[in-house]
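Input record, target 12 of the design panel.
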């Protein structure tokens, strides 16, 4: 199913959900729950916490479906709710216990195995995971949304409730930080700052 068709279907289900149709809500839940779980697992350490955040998210979808104005795709709207629920859960819970700082189970790189009989993919995954963990939170979330979930800058701006220019700046600074951090993690000297500012 292409994204446009999927969003049209999501919109129809959301409008039906706003009318109290539980079957439509169940379809929305089945479609979006796996994607939200994969995203949240990258930022929280316990699967049960990720499940709790998804449940909070979908409860808000059920109770606020009537408030959807169509300014963004339904998927983007739901992801934005999940992002805010995640921030609240991490803020209210013990950060050291909940934040998955290393994020070693990096699903996006699991899908890119190296040649048979070699550890290349595992080493690359571990290396990149440590690089991502070193990023400031907002830069990392922006990068994950862009490259892991494939969201556009406009959609990320809607999810994170910030201007598109801020999204682009965060992506730029995140890429600069990774470019300068990854060589050091691999045992090579880091390069120059590359023009990165303190902001972003």
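The sequence produced for target 12 reads:
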């Amino acid at each position: 199913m292409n994204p446009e068709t999927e969003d049209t279907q999501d919109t129809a289900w959301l409008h039906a959900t706003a009318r109290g149709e539980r079957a439509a809500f169940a379809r929305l839940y089945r479609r979006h729950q796996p994607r939200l779980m994969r995203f949240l697992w990258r930022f929280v350490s316990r699967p049960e916490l990720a499940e709790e955040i998804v449940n909070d998210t979908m409860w808000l979808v059920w109770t606020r479906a009537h408030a959807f104005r169509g300014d963004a795709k339904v998927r983007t709207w739901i992801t934005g709710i999940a992002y805010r629920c995640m921030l609240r859960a991490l803020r209210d819970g013990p950060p050291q216990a909940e934040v998955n700082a290393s994020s070693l189970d990096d699903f996006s790189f699991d899908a890119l195995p190296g040649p048979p009989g070699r550890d290349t993919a595992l080493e690359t995954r571990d290396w990149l995971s440590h690089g991502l963990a070193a990023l400031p939170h907002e830069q990392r979330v922006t990068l994950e949304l862009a490259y892991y979930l494939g969201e556009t800058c406009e959609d990320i701006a809607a999810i994170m409730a910030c201007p598109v220019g801020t999204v682009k700046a965060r992506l730029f600074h995140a890429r600069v930080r990774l470019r300068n951090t990854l060589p050091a993690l691999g045992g090579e000297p880091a390069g120059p700052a590359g023009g990165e500012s303190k902001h972003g």
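The chain has two domains: 1-100, 103-200.
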